[in-house]
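Page 47, continued from p. 46.
Same chain as before, 198 aa.
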Amino acid sequence: MKIIPETIYAGEFILAPGVSDDGLPDISIHSQHGKVFVATILTKDIPKWINEQEKSTGLLDAELMAFWVGHMGNPSADDMLLFWRWRFVECWRHYQTEKEGRPVFTHEANGTLHVLPMYPRAMRFAVASHLEGAMIEHLGAEEGIKAALTMYAHMVAPPNTDQWLTTMGIEATERLKLVFFEAVDHLANGTFEAEAFH
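Result:
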């Protein structure tokens, strides 16, 4: 008989581990101290669910990911990419919040300070496209995924430090930031070529 873990309390959220009708481990989420049902998610689908959320709920996301890590046993490479992508973007948002007072990018061009908000879902998509995509394109799927996982692990600061990102992580975020502002500049000036939108 499988033992179901105890209920987890995370701020206003209550996480109740359980078992689905198909006998798979799941977790039910309630907000407002148990008054509002949010979702029931199969444990194996936690990274995917978090990745699809438009807004970050830091404490909830962290508790769910910790639960997932502790209960998955042997996650797939794709699951690990979802986990590390989430972890990197969360650390990046915390780093920017400490630096700017809120999760935004700033970039000065021609004497004008530009500010872009950091939307977690969009950030994860961009990171997957630019970092993971480049590795997979150049090294092939299997080796590219391994390289991307190694890269993420080297960009996120260890938990026992007071940093969010390593020097490598900070350098990567600065380069990505420039890519984002360049894209915004192209959109603002109408300089994207038509072929880019098919």
